[in-house]
Amino acid sequence: MILSNHHFVAFALLGVVLASVVWASPHVANAAETNGAFAGAIKTAQARTVKIYGAGIGRVAGYGTGVIVSGEGEILTAAGAYLATPNLRVGLPDGSIHLAKVIRRDQNLQLALLSIEAKTPQFFTVDKKTQPLPGDWVLAIANAFKVADGAEPMGVTLGVVSSRTRLDARRGTHDVDYADDVLLIDAITSNPGAAGGAVVTAEGDLVGLVGKVAVSNQTGTRLNYAIPADLLANFVAGKSSPETATEPKPKGSLGFRLFQLGGRNGPAFIDRVVKGGPADRAGLRADDLVVAIDGSPIKNVREFTEKADSLVAGKEVLLIVKRNNQLIQTPITPTEAKPK
Amino acid sequence: MYAKLQSVAVAFTFFAIFVRSTVAQESPVSPAEFELVEAAESARIAAIEKVYGSVVAIYGNDRKGGGSGVIFDSAGYALTNYHVVSGAGLSGWAGLADGKLYRWKIVGIDPGGDVAIIDIDREKPFPISRLGDSSTVRVGDWSMAMGNPFLLAEDQRPTVTLGIVSGIERYQYGEGMNELVYGNCIQVDSSINPGNSGGPLYNLAGEVIGINGRGSFEERGRVNVGLGYAISINQIKNFLPDIMATKVAQHGSLDALFTNRREGVICSTINLDSPIATLGLQLGDRLVEFEGEPIRTANQFTNLMTTLPADWPAKVIVERAGERLTFHSRLLPLPYAAKQSAPKPPTEKKPIPTPETANGFGDPGGIRDAKQNQAIAGELLLKAQTSLGEWSEDVVAIRLQDEIQSDGETTPQTIVLAADGRFRIDQPQGAGVIAWGYDGKDYWRLGKDRVTETLSLSRALRDPIFTQGIVLAHLRHESPAAEIGTARLEGGDKAADQIAYRLRIVDSEGDWFHLWLSVVDNAGQPHVELLKSGTDADAPSERPALTWSDWRSPKGVRIPFRRIVVTGIEESPQQIIVTKEASGLNKIDDALFTHRGS
Questions:
Q1: Structure pTM?
Q2: What are B185-238's pLDDT values in tens digits?
Q3: Which residues of A touch B9 (CB under 8 A)?
Q4: ipTM for this prediction
Q5: In chain B, which among 187-246 make CB contacts under 8 A with chain A?
Q6: Are residues B16 and A144, on separate chains, in Cβ contact within 8 Å?
C-alpha cells in the first residue's frame, strides 16, 4: 500500500485536468502528423545518452544507461551496486569507451554523478523549469537488455506522462530505496539496464531520468517512472533537495522498546516505555501492540525497525496501537535519538 | 497496486480523447491542429481496415497453441514464424477475420531466420497486405503490430497495438545451431505478446515492414516488456524463393571470420578450403565493402550476412597493402543441428526416421515436396507469362530494330516476334546475313557459311542470341512449362543484381535451362517477371546468360528493350543489346520463320 486512498482522489481530479491538458498540449498535434515527428528529439537525445558498463553482481545487471550533463564529461545515472568497480566504463554515442569514476551519490534519489576524462560537447541542460504535464509525450532512451553495443544507438520507447506523485519506496513494498517525487510514465522503462536513461519531451528536452527497476512485492508489477528534472538539477548543482540534506537530520526516537524475545518476525509489542519520553507523553504503555506508523502497517518487529529507522526528530507521525481489543490512534513526535 | 495506478492513469488518457470535442472550445490548440490529429487518426484507421482481412490466426491441428501470420499473395500464401509452425506441424487451422477457420499446409521454412510460409485453402483471391521496404524504416516511426496475442480472439479477428520503432539493425542471438537468429531486425515498443509471433509489423501506410517474432522475455516472463523484435521484410524477401521451393532454407556464410581491429574490420579466421579462400582472400585483409554496403564494424557485417541465403553470389571488396581486391563468391550454407531422435532398433513396421526428416520439414537445403514445388514453379511461370501482357488484336507480330554494343563496336540486329511464338533474328555479317529462327516446330540457325542447321531446344538455348526469341516465345505458350518439359523451383539466386526465383526447366531429353524470375518489383511488391535466362547457373564464359530489363509496352505486349549477354556470377556484360525501335506488323509471311525462307 504505497499510495493511500487520497492519491486516488488526486487521480480522479487529475483525470479532469488531463482532459484539458492532453488536447491543450501542442505536442499532440505535432506528433500525430505522421512519421518523423519524433526524429529530431530522438537524434538529439541519443547523442547525449551513454552506455555504462560496471560489475555484474548475481542477478543484478552489470550495465546501465546515463545522460551527459556537462561539456566536461559529467554523467548522471541511477545509483546501483554495479557502479562499485574500479573498472567502471562509459560508452559515448560515438562508440568510444572511457574509464569513469563516481564523484557523488544521493541515497534518497538513488542518483550518481560520474566523471570521465573526455570532452562531451553534446550534453543535456538539466533545467528546473522543464516540467511536463500529464498527457505530454515523452520518449525514453535507454540500453535495456543491453540491446545496443558500441556506437549502435540505444532503444527508444514512447509514452505519455501519467502524473507526478510522491514515491515512498521502502523495503517490504518493493526493492528500491527511493523517497521523493517521481513522474509516472506509460512508456515501459522498468527493465534491466534502463535505469539512468534519458526521458525527454517531443522536443528533446530532458524532463527526467529513468528510475531503477521497482517491483511491487504485493503484485509483482513494475512501476515505470522517471526522476523529475528539477530534482536532478538540484543534485547536479550539488544542492540537495530538502529530503536529501547532506547533513542528515537527527534520527528520531519514539521513547519505547519492543519486546524482542519473539525474534524479528514476532509481533511488535511494547516492552518498556521511557519515562518522560514521547511514548510516555502520548500515553502508550507496555504490552500495547504497534499495528501502524503513518498509515504503513507494521506486522512484526522487523517492519517496525525499518520504519523507525526513517523517523526524523521533531516530525510528528501517527501511531496506531492495539490495547486489549481496542485500536488507539495517537499522534507522536519523536525526539532526538541518543547515539548508540 | 502499481498496475491499478497505471491503468487509472491510462484510462484517463483515453477519457481525455473521448471528451475532446467538449474541451475543444477552450483549448489553445487551433482547429487546424485538431484537423491534423483527426486526419492522422482516420488515415491510421483506414490503413488498418485495408489490411485487416489479411492477418491470420494460426493453430495446429489440435487447435491448441498457435500464433499469427499475414497473407502476402492473393493465392493464399501467408508469412509466419518458423517457431509457430514447428510447434503446429505440417498443417493446421487458419483463422481469418471473417471468423472462419480454414485448413493450411506448410510450404517451406527458414529456421535460421525464424520464417515460414503456409498455404491457406480457401476460395481465391485472398485479401493481402502490401510489403514495405524495411531499409527506409527509421527510429521513431510509428509501427503497428497485428496478430492474435494470448490467442484471445474467439472470432479470429486480429488485435492491433501501436508503438514506435525503438531501434533498427538490431542483432538478437539465436538458439541451438544457427536457428532463430534475429539479425538486422527491427526493435519496437508496440506490445508484442505470446501469440503475436508470426504476425505482421506495419508502418502507418499499412505495409508489412517485418514479422514479429520475439521480445526480451528473459527476465520478466513471457509478456510484453516494451522490447519486441521483428524480422525485417527485406530479409524475408531474400528468402522467399527458397521457402517457396518447399525447402528448409539455410543462411549463408563466407566461412571466414572478420574482427574489429584498430585498422578496421580484419579477416581473422579463414577456412582455406572455402571458395573465397580459393579465390584469394587472405588473413589480415581489411573488409571494405560487402554486397555494396561499406563496412564499418564486424557487427554490421554479421548483421548483413544473416539476411542472405546460402548460395547467394556475394560481392566482397577487401583492401590489402593499399590495393583493392574484389571477390564474387557463392555463400556456403550454415548447417543446422540434426534433429536428434534416440536411435532405436529398426522394426519391420516402422522404419527409423532419418534425423533430418524426423520433423517432416525435410532436409536442410533440400526440397521437401517435389510435387508441391512443381505446382509452385508452374504458378510462377504463369505469373511471368501474365507480366508479358496481351497482344493488341490488330497486331500479329512485332519487329524490333536493335543495336548491339560489344567491345566499343555497334552492329544492328532485327527481330520479328510473332504472336503465336514463331520468331526470326537477323544480324548482318559482312555482305550477307546470319539468322536464327523458330517456325513453330524446329529451331534453326543460318551460319556464315550459308549452311542451316537444326538444333534441339537446349542446344539452341546455349546461344544467348537465340535465347532472345526462344524464351519470349515459350513464356507465351498456354502452359509454358508443359510445352518444354517440367519446371522446378530450385530456390533463390541473384539475377540482374536483385533477388530472383531460379527455375530449372527440363526438356524431354533431360537437358535443362534456367529461368530467373523477379520476386519483387522496384516498389518492393511481389511481382514475377523474367530477369535472366541461361543454361548454367554460374554462366561460365562458354555458356553465357542473358539478362532482361527495361520492359516497355509497344502494342500492348511487354518487351525488354535492354538485353545483356553476361558471364560469371558477377554478370560481367559481354554484349549489350538495346532496342531502338519497335513496330507492330498486321500481316506476316509464314516463310520468314522457316529456314527455307532465308
A1: 0.81
A2: 999 999 999 999 999 999 999 999 999 999 987 777 778 889 999 999 999 999
A3: 11, 14, 134, 162-163, 184, 186
A4: 0.79
A5: 187, 189, 203-204, 216, 218-220, 224-227
A6: no
